Amino acid sequence: MRLVPPALLAASALAGPAGADGCRLALVLAIDVSSSVDAEEDRLQREGLARALLAPEVVRAFLAGDPVALHAFEWSGQRTQVPFWPGWVMVEDEPTLERLAATIAGSPRSTDELPTAVGAALARGAIALRDGPDCRARTIDVAGDGFHNEGFGPDLAYREFPFTGVTVNALVIGGSDFEAELVRWFEAEVMRGPGAFVEVAEGYGDYARAMERKLLRELGLPAVSGTPEGDDAG
Fold first, then answer.
1. Which residues contact 43 (CB under 8 A, 6 or more apart)?
2. Torsion sign across C-alpha atoms 209, 214, 219, 225
3. Integer CA distances (angstroms), 171 to 62, 65, 141, 163, 174, in order
4. pLDDT tens-digit map of 55-72
């Protein structure tokens, strides 16, 4: 398959504020809207992400200490990465999180018939981080329910795009016969950087719980269950 030149993806990325004093984490959230995700699953995904962002422990984690910069987009084919809002938002209070959650929950899906281009989604996240705020840690959070099947893969993305100092975590949406294989693939091909991990949602009905756990780990607080999970996103 034909590769997308790095310059093409770079041109499509949205720049954000540079040199944000005191920002502790730049976090990119990327959700899968490829053809394997049906309309009901997509609804559960958007509402689940919104619920996770507003969970009391997650709100507390966002607001504990220096602010977190947030960027989010949906992805599918190699040329389809659509942001939920322009650029980056510095999360400094609860009303900001409420606005972002409402934007995600109420957003229209950009497409429902394209393949799963994980490499291009990773590249889009890397470009957004490169052009975004200067935070102490940088993390890409990729959610998906299937294997990469279009365009360049994660290996080429990691070679050709700026991932120095970037941690990549994944949320695998399971509940299928190939769940264990899919988790192993994300661990081997997508997970990257210090403290990186893969969280598993047991189907889209479990999306909010799994995303909440993942956000708490990325934001540096223990999971809701109380299990010690002090991995730092940086």
1. none
2. positive
3. 19, 25, 7, 19, 9
4. 999 999 999 989 999 999
